[in-house]
Specification:
The chain is mainly α. Helix content is about 45%, strand content about 5%. It has a domain of about 190 residues.
Length: about 280
């Protein structure tokens, strides 16, 4: 081999190495192989109930306890002989506006006891209710030879019914409860063997509710000077019930509605007495 052949072969080898290097450098680098990160594990929801949220500490541990405030007790009852002013203060609203003469009377609770005892026994307490006596004559109308009560006579009792029903039932029962000891004392002074106020009031209400309401005109009979009810069942009513019947259907219905409401209020359970909780 000559010297120029050796140089030529060397040049060819060098060119081949250069071409190979250029070709390797121009190719895109292979991606590096790395370990894949593990996927996050999703745990199924727990079927157990979550832990309860702890209750806040009692108010007493973080702040001073507020004082327990109860409504003031009612003032003590006065003696029966000195009770008129206390009674008048309680009913001066509607009763005072409709019947100022009633509040001007003396011995209001004794009079009330007489009314309860007489009405419960079927008697008319005219002496105690004289200041509320109606005005105008009793009127009748005649048809085919039969006398009937004139409906115009019923209007005389509207004011009386207004007075009796002006206090709401709950207020009426509250007053009966408030003055029950004094009313019992007044009933005992009348000679009542069992001066139980509740029993007397219930008997009065029962008599009011037992009065029938005849439809239409009420026929009358006149065997003597005074008129009587031609219907024997109406004439057989006691004096107190016949007096209510003379007031007419509309007035009687108002009285009976009020009596039912008072009776329902009396039957309502007594609420417990309020008291402060123990420490």
């Amino acid at each position: 081999m000559t010297r120029w052949q050796a140089v030529a072969i060397g040049a060819v080898v060098i060119m081949g190495v250069v071409v190979l290097l250029v070709w390797q450098t121009g190719r895109p680098a292979a991606p590096a192989i790395t370990e894949e990160a593990p996927l996050p594990t999703v745990e199924p929801p727990s079927l157990e109930s979550p832990a309860p949220t702890p209750a806040p500490p009692p108010a007493g541990e973080t702040a001073a306890r507020e004082p327990c405030l109860l409504p003031p007790p009612p003032p003590p009852l006065p003696p029966l002989a000195e009770s008129d002013a206390a009674v008048a203060r309680e009913v001066t609203g509607c009763v005072g506006g409709l019947a100022p003469a009633w509040l001007a009377q003396e011995d209001l609770l004794r009079r009330a006891a007489v009314v309860v005892a007489a009405a419960a026994a079927g008697r008319v307490p005219r002496g105690q209710l004289a200041f509320m006596a109606v005005t105008g004559p009793f009127q009748t109308v005649e048809r085919d030879g039969v006398a009937y009560v004139d409906p115009a006579s019923y209007r005389r009792y509207v004011r009386f019914v207004d007075i009796v029903t002006c206090l709401p039932p709950e207020r009426t029962v509250a007053l009966l409860t408030r003055f029950e000891p004094l009313l019992a004392e007044a009933l005992a002074a009348l000679g009542e063997t069992e001066p139980h106020v509740g029993a007397g009031v219930d008997a009065l209400l029962e008599r009011v509710l037992a009065v029938p309401t005849p439809p239409g005109f009420v026929p009358l009979a006149r065997p003597n000077v005074l008129y009587e009810y031609a219907d024997p069942s109406l004439e057989a009513l006691d004096d107190f019930q016949k007096q209510l019947l003379r007031m007419g259907p509309a007035n009687l219905a108002r009285l009976q509605d009020h009596a039912r409401a008072v009776r329902a209020e009396l039957a309502r359970p007594t609420p417990p007495v309020e008291s402060c909780p123990d420490d």
